[in-house]
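Need a sequence for this fold. Nothing fancy.
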């Protein structure tokens, strides 16, 4: 049961992803064809594959990770605290390697938690690590494991209570539980534009950390526990931003 989970053995995470290239025209001919084939059944009558290329970041085969934010719970003077750390980098392989190195310092039975993470964040990270030639950390690798051996929590799945017919966004779930929204600046739909047009990775990092904190607060509410006090939240930023992403 959820209340038996030791929060100090939980790492909450969120990732931000964008398309491999800024525009469809920058793709090589082979990937243009592959992308067109991927989206052919979802296009509206007046759309082309190029028109929806901004959605490529949703697919690990056509996107890349630009930010991973994580948070861990800890007790300080009897009060539950939460410490955030981010990996934000224009070079995906370095970002993934840094995150993987962090996981290698953690217990193999560390619980990973996110919102819609079982369907998106966790498999996306695994696919991109394989593409970048990196070994999978034990905590992410589910190959050959029985369901009860996989230490993954998903707040969307927890909220469903067995009802798999509906999707609930992080923003909606936070609203119904009385938790401040993390979408007070940008949303996921803005990330690609902010990255390629504004070159503002720092803004994306801040947004990603807000999502992690919101997810942590939701997890607390699902356990009927009080929210983490804002003064108990601390930050450790991994400043390894590339000056030039091209």
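Here you go.
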């Amino acid at each position: 049961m959820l209340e038996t989970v030791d929060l100090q053995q939980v790492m909450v995470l969120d990732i931000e992803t964008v398309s491999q290239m800024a525009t469809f025209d920058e793709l090589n001919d082979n990937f243009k064809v592959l992308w067109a084939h991927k989206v052919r059944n979802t296009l509206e009558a007046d759309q082309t594959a190029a028109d929806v290329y901004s959605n490529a970041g949703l697919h690990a085969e056509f996107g890349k990770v630009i930010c991973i934010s994580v948070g861990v719970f800890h007790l300080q003077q009897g009060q539950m605290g939460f410490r955030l750390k981010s990996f934000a980098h224009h070079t995906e392989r370095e970002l993934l390697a840094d995150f993987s190195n962090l996981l290698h310092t953690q217990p193999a039975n560390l619980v990973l938690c996110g919102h819609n993470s079982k369907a998106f964040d966790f498999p996306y990270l695994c696919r991109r690590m394989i593409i970048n030639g990196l070994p999978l950390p034990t905590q992410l690798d589910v190959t050959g494991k029985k369901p009860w051996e996989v230490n993954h929590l998903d707040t969307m799945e927890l909220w469903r209570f067995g009802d798999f017919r509906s999707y609930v966004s992080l923003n909606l779930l936070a609203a119904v539980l009385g938790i401040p929204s993390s979408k007070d600046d940008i949303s996921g739909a803005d990330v690609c534009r902010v990255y390629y047009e504004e070159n503002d990775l720092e803004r994306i990092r801040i947004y990603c950390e807000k999502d992690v904190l919101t997810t942590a607060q939701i997890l607390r509410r699902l356990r009927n526990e009080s929210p983490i006090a804002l003064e108990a939240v601390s930050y450790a930023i991994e400043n390894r931003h590339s000056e030039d992403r091209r």
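For context: Residues 60 and 124 are 6 Å apart (CA to CA).
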